[in-house]
Amino acid sequence: MENPTHALIIIDTSVKNNVATSITHVHIHNKPIVKILHHIVNVNIIEAKLFAIRCSINQATLSLEISKIVVITNSIHAAKKIFDPTLHSFQIYTSSILHKLQKFFNIHQDNLIEFWECLS
């Protein structure tokens, strides 16, 4: 992404032997801003992916100049759970993500977030 107001987030999460590993890269204007590596135990894959999405959106929205966020993930089904208020088991993750996104959209009405699926 060559636009300095766009953030690109790439997330890869997997679970092996009850340990979730999440690697997130956040880039702004073709420059890596942060690489986040998390190891989480005793969570399911959906929780791990939602946690990674939450952390990455937090990083991308730190700059008030960001107007577009593109999240590339191997788990689009987890991203869809963010916007489903009937899933009570994931409320801790979804409420945090939605709160951050509400602030992001309140900054400017044209702000945008997109989720792209990239299979592993």
What characteristics describe this protein?
120 residues, 37% strand, 32% helix, alpha/beta, Nucleotidyltransferase, domain 5, five-stranded mixed sheet
Short description:
The chain contains three helices and five strands. It is α/β, with parallel strands linked by helices and about 120 residues long. A hairpin with a 2-residue loop joins β1 and β2.
Could you explain the architecture of this structure?
The protein is 32% helix and 37% strand. The chain has 120 residues and is of the alpha/beta class. It has one domain: Nucleotidyltransferase, domain 5, CATH 3.30.420.10. Strands 3-2-1-4-5 form a 5-stranded mixed β-sheet, covered by helices on one side. Helix 1 runs parallel beside helix 3. The longest helix has 17 residues. The protein is globular.
